[in-house]
Amino acid sequence: MEHPDSFLNIIFHEISETGDDLALCAGFERGQWRNEQLADHMMEWLPEFALEYSELSEIGHANALRMTKKAAKIVYQTEKYGLRGEFGELLLHIAIRQVYETLPAVSKIYYKSAVNETVKGFDAVHVVRKDNDLELWIGETKFYENITKAIYDVSKEIVDHLETDYLRSEFILIKNKIDPSWPEAEKLKKLLHANTSLDEVFKKACIPILLTYDSDVVGVSGVSNDEYREKIRGELINTYARLREKIGSEYKNRFTQDFPLTAHVILVPLREKKKLIAALDERLKALQI
Known about the structure:
Blueprint: E1 9-14, E2 21-25, E3 28-29, E4 32-33, H1 35-44, H2 46-50, H3 53-57, H4 64-75, H5 86-100, E5 103-106, E6 124-130, E7 133-143, H6 147-161, H7 164-177, H8 185-191, H9 198-201, E8 205-214, H10 216-219, H11 226-254, E9 263-270, H12 273-286
Parallel strand pairs: 2-9, 7-8, 8-9
Antiparallel strand pairs: 1-2, 3-4, 5-6, 6-7
Helix pairs in contact: 1-12, 6-11
Domain Anti-bacteriophage protein A/HamA C-terminal: 7-284
InterPro entries: AbpA_HamA_C
Protein name: Anti-bacteriophage protein A/HamA C-terminal domain-containing protein
């Protein structure tokens, strides 16, 4: 499945057996952080993020604008956009598609049952083809200004979502939302079947965790030079360590047995979240006309 050209810069990527530590940044142009350009890029991903596979397959020159407007209306259905997580979910979608070439399995936002309702459950449901099989990617995101609060909230939520009853209920919902025309539909349904042990599922599963935050380093920088990379590296490494320690602590407090869990931690430092929201809001409103 084709997707928009890459835009976000990989400014940190460390790989380990328990999962990657990855950081993506919009970068700078003429001394300014690329806020407007990032907002434009995120809009390019709207159709893939919000529409069903069968609808995406039918997009062509004649209906591209109409389908983009439909996607925008699905995403933006309330003035309370600053309190919701759709923008974080969109960034998570972009990040794992760009870096890991995942395939979107379910557009969860498409299945809202009412205007203003926040979609429950995992924030992304993607897969990666591995050795003629599927690796399940179920993601979590926090589109926050404060990284400490983001770490606290996402750690608890991840552990909550690893409870057996929660996973089984969520897998049923995911199975019911898979577009039958999607080429990997039957393989994913088999993996999520109630008769498949969760031990087997999580041998072939990954949890990507994306957090945004207003970065002190980005806030005082204007160019992606060696000094910037060194300073942002220090900020990032400390954040990865805090998050993984917090997840481990939450997990040990809840479960008595280890889980074969791979977690990719993706950080997206922002200059000012509120300015990115304003830019995204402006573009989404324009697509409502």
